[in-house]
Design a protein that fits this description.
Bound molecules: zinc ion
Radius of gyration: 16 Å
Oligomer: single chain
Number of helices: 6
Largest sheet: 5 strands, mixed
Strand order of the largest sheet: 2-1-3-4-5
Shape: globular
Order of helices and strands: HHEEHHEHEEH
Number of strands: 5
Structural class: alpha/beta
Distance between the termini: 41 Å
Strand content: 15-25%
């Protein structure tokens, strides 16, 4: 209730309407991962409110431990821009980036990361590690977490619940 009285605070938690729209786009990609039996995580990279690239989690199908949604999106954006630096871009992802993805995001010089659900076990955007902002690295990334967090964590919880059931519950 208190938050609703403070629009700036509300933006911090929910994101702007554009942030929410791009996050919905990332959620649709996460569903694509889920349909393929992968953990549902999706990502998009945007510059000046224009879509540069999409990615979704696919390590199992690709036999590739690095095939996280963010990495797939960074690779696609690099190709589409013909540039390994993605300055001025915002990366939207449905789950807080891991250590590997945070490293790649810094290498790519992404300006801003917006994520939905936090990852209390492996998150590298503040939960377990903080590799994007306030670091000794020469590139700092603006971070905003919590945009559509509930919907995205529901999607993940639901996925793991179904998977536990179908694997005969260990
Ligand atoms: Zn990752």
């Amino acid at each position: 209730m208190v938050f609703q009285a403070i629009p700036a605070m509300q933006n911090f938690i929910r994101g702007t309407p554009r942030d929410q729209q791009w996050m919905r786009h990332a959620m649709a990609l996460a569903q694509r991962a889920e349909a393929a039996g992968e953990v549902p995580v999706g990502a998009v990279i945007v510059r000046d409110d224009r879509l540069l690239a999409e990615g979704w989690n696919q390590p199992i199908a690709a036999h590739d431990p690095t095939a996280h949604a963010e990495i797939m999106a960074l690779r696609a954006a690099g190709l589409s821009e013909a540039n390994y630096r993605l300055t001025g871009t915002t990366l939207y992802v449905t789950l807080e980036p891991c250590v590997m993805c945070a490293g790649a995001i810094v290498h790519a010089r992404v300006a801003r990361v917006v994520y939905a659900a936090t990852d209390p076990r492996a998150g590298a955007a503040g939960s377990v590690f903080s590799l994007l902002e306030d670091t000794p690295l020469n590139h700092q990334v603006m971070v905003q977490g919590g945009v559509l967090a509930e919907e995205c964590s529901d999607m993940l919880r639901q996925f793991f619940r179904v998977r536990r059931k179908s694997s005969g519950k260990k």
